[in-house]
Amino acid sequence: MGITFLAAGTSIPDAMASTLVAMDGLGDMAISNIIGSNIFEIYICLGGLWFIRSITDDLDPVDIYSSGLTFTSMMLFGTVVFAFGTIHLNGWKLDKKMGVICTLCYAVVISFAIMYELNVFADVNPPPCKY
């Protein structure tokens, strides 16, 4: 729960900054902020935490269930390609139609990621701990 609030707390200022620069007519700056902040959060923040965990635990490897991570990473890459493709097809303009398309794309990606993590498509996560 705390991680969710932390993620919202770091994403809301980025969203507001992107909205303000898009309203000023600088859509390319808004898109680069959106993509850049997500790349930073994934590679630096997540990778940094895994690195700290591995050096503080006698250099033991960090166990992760990679099938869910692989699916989610591929979905994120697909959304970046989709975003660039739809913006290109829209004449490099951000309008209400692009806002609706991006919102629907986000809803689809989140829905599939949740279903995948809940073992709807395949058995990727072990059963929860009984304690």
Automatic annotation (TrEMBL):
It comes from the Eukaryota. It is found in: Membrane. Keywords: Antiport, Calcium, Calcium transport, Ion transport, Membrane, Transmembrane, Transmembrane helix, Transport. It holds the Pfam family Na_Ca_ex. Residues 1-114 form the Sodium/calcium exchanger membrane region domain. Its main location: membrane. The chain crosses the membrane at residues 30-52, 64-86, 98-116. It is a multi-pass membrane protein. Gene3D superfamilies: NCX, central ion-binding region. Belongs to the Ca(2+):cation antiporter (CaCA) (TC 2.A.19) family. SLC24A subfamily. This is Probable sodium/potassium/calcium exchanger CG1090-like.
